[in-house]
Amino acid sequence: MKRRISLTLPLFFFLFSLSGCGYAGPEKAVREELNLIRGMNTDTITSFLTHEEGSLFHEDIQENVADIAEAIKLFYKDFKFKILSSSLSEDGSTSTVHVQITNLDAEQLAKDLCRGMIESSLTSSSETDVSLAACLSMMQQYLTEHSYDRKTTEIDIQLTKKDEEWYLVEDAALADGLTGGLVAFLNDRYLLSPKEALDITLSHFSDFTAVQWKSYLNVNDIFQVNSDLSEKLDGLLLEQISSLFSYQIGESRIDGDTAEVTLYLTSLDLEPIMQTYRASLLDYAKTTESIRASEDELTQKTGEILMEALNTKKQSTVHTIQVPLYNNGHFWVAVLNDSFTDALLGGISGAVEALD
Fold first, then answer.
1. For residue 333, what are the β-bridge partners?
2. pLDDT for 309-335, tens place per residue?
3. In this predicted model, what pLDDT tens digit does every residue of 13-50 receive, in sequence order?
């Protein structure tokens, strides 16, 4: 389930509306260029995205133009600015314009995007990066469905003078300022905590059916009864897992780019089931029927006794395990190892030992 996610949005995505024109003064340059952002509409954005010069974008942008144009428009829907002051360098070749920017609070949007990309990574075995188009389509969905608070910040916009005209310096600082810090938030590999990343991962399983658990766990005759009852026994076990699965997240310990989170996982308690199964087997072994039975008949009877135990001895328990995580350079990734699987299966390793 590992997948590399690229959360770095190209700077030109946020700066494309700047015309690149020169102006007679620094404040006029800032005012005119930022008015372009405030006055954007879907047609303007679509025109840019489909223009030949838009080839800087990945090719799959062209397949999602409508969603992406809507995402950009929604992001800047309430964009406002106010020029507070400006200053010139001693030689008059550069200028700094101090601007108040009001736009949506990008931190929560960035967290939602990060959550969405973690969720996306759980449903694919691909090792390729999530495309820019997919990221922006996701942004369009969140901006449509969610309401984000507005935030006012102050930024310095740098300008340079060339041939008596002033031009904005289109750099990372400008991109981050005009997006309320979205670029920086998306590039923050620790934006979500290990506990948040684990919760996103586990919530993916909350509505799993028995069929989905069978696919995830790759279950095939989990009890190794080797009879025609194998599939039914697997189904009974998976139905119990599906109906009982829940969790609580405890404390976390972080050490650099590795972490460990305590997980309290509710699933079935397999040990008493296996104890009931063992007692019934011993009782059956004392009968004359068991002595006369063929190998195939013994196998079938063993499966029947186990099925009865699974049907009659249903109870849950909380398994406490430690889940390791690592930071892949973009966010925290939970490693659902054998300890998680064993707990999910009701503590099957300990339950099997109870048969000895």
1. 326
2. 888 877 899 999 999 999 988 899 999
3. 555 556 668 888 999 999 998 998 887 777 777 776 66
Residue 7 confidence (pLDDT) above 70: no
pLDDT at residue 151 greater than cutoff 50: yes
- 71 alpha carbon, distance to own chain's centre: 19
In the numeric block, which tokens belong to residue 107?
Answer: 């931190």
State how far Cα 15 lies from the chain centre: 27
Token pair recorded at residue 32 = 């005119």
Radius of gyration of the chain (CA): 30
pLDDT one-digit tens code per residue, 157-180:
999 999 999 999 988 888 888 888
Distances (CA, A) of 301 to 20, 190, 225, 285: 81, 55, 10, 11
Q: Are strands 165-168 and 94-104 parallel, antiparallel or unpaired?
A: unpaired
Name the helix (H) or strand (E) containing 18. none
pLDDT band (50, 70, 90) for residue 10:
very low
3-state DSSP helix/strand/coil percent for the chain, to nearest 5? 50, 20, 30
The rounded Cα 104 to chain-centroid distance in angstroms is 22
- pLDDT for residue 225: 77
- Give the C-alpha separation, 138 to 71, whole Å: 9
CA distance 8 to 5: 9
| Exposure string over 66-84, b if 16+ CB within 10 A, otherwise e | ebbbbbbbbbbeebebebe
Q: Which amino acid is at 168?
A: L
Dist CA 355 CA 140 (whole Å): 55
Q: What is the pTM of this model?
A: 0.80
Q: Is 236 helix (H, G, I), strand (E, B) or coil?
A: helix
DSSP for 39-101, written as a single string = T--HHHHHHHHHSGGGGGS-GGGGGGHHHHHHHHHHHTTT-EEEEEEEEE-TTSSEEEEEEEE
Residue 179's pLDDT is what? 86
Identify which of 233, 258, 186, 202 has the alpha carbon closest to the alpha carbon of residue 14.
Answer: 186
